[in-house]
Amino acid sequence: MNRKIELQNVTLRFRKFEALKDISLSLDANKIHGLIGRNGAGKTSLLSLLAAFREPTDGQITIDGEPVFENPDKMQQVMFVYDKKYDEEYDKIPAMLEFVERHRPNYDKDYADYLLKRFKLPLDKSVHKLSKGMQSAMNAVIGLASRAPITIFDEAYLGMDAPTREIFYQEILADQAEHPRTFILSTHLVSEMDYLFDNVVIINQGRLILNEDYETLTARGASITGSAEQVDAFTSGMKILNEQKLGGTKKVMVYGVLDDNRYVNARELGLEIGPVSLQDLFIHLTEEER
Prior knowledge:
Elements: E1 5-14, E2 17-27, E3 32-36, H1 43-50, E4 58-63, E5 66-67, H2 72-75, E6 78-82, H3 93-103, H4 109-118, H5 132-146, E7 150-154, H6 162-178, E8 182-187, H7 190-193, E9 199-204, E10 207-213, H8 214-219, E11 221-227, H9 228-235, E12 239-246, E13 249-255, H10 260-268, E14 272-274, H11 278-289
Parallel strand pairs: 3-8, 3-9, 6-7, 7-8
Antiparallel strand pairs: 1-2, 1-4, 4-5, 9-10, 11-13, 11-14, 12-13
């Protein structure tokens, strides 16, 4: 089975508030999907539906063509790791991992032991006594070692310092190479994590903005720099996301694929064409929507 995820016309309402609005998308198996959106965009609401934590108000979510909600077989194939408070958690890390082992059939104890050492986590302290960074690292171990066919990390790096986050990213890529699965990574740290993504999903104000292959998406953006008059003429009719002007020089960010003729034309006009980062595309695409 390929563990393909399908959402068909999914809406989620809390009384009169629509957290998600008629979302339809397909997520291919064994890829790393980046889910990005501004605060309150609906990321966690969407992920909680995928993990069967709640039922959509309208529409359907399926894995391999089968509904997820109240489907024990599908639910144990999904591991949803999110930032949570452990103030009342008096168990130690080994007990937390034993619980995961009982409920996730793909759990790998040897890999968990390796990760505990990699993150330098203490095994003799109650979880509520661990620092926020150590709790986040424990969450990373839980998600990675579960080896669940669909592993979801919702802002799971919160609390980690930069070196620990780097270990987390390295382990995602290393384990994906050896044991492919479907990862969904929700994040605000777009510029730091974009190199992990095979595919990008952007939602804003509960709506799906795009669901695209990373390379295809980033190839759609370009920055055009040169004399203001030449830049304006070159970008006429194009979708402009942002523009900056300094003296007689202008830099414009456009959204749309530039063909070979456009590149030749730009060189003839003395214009410089550069790439646009995923973070810049995300900022300006969602700003336009707002």
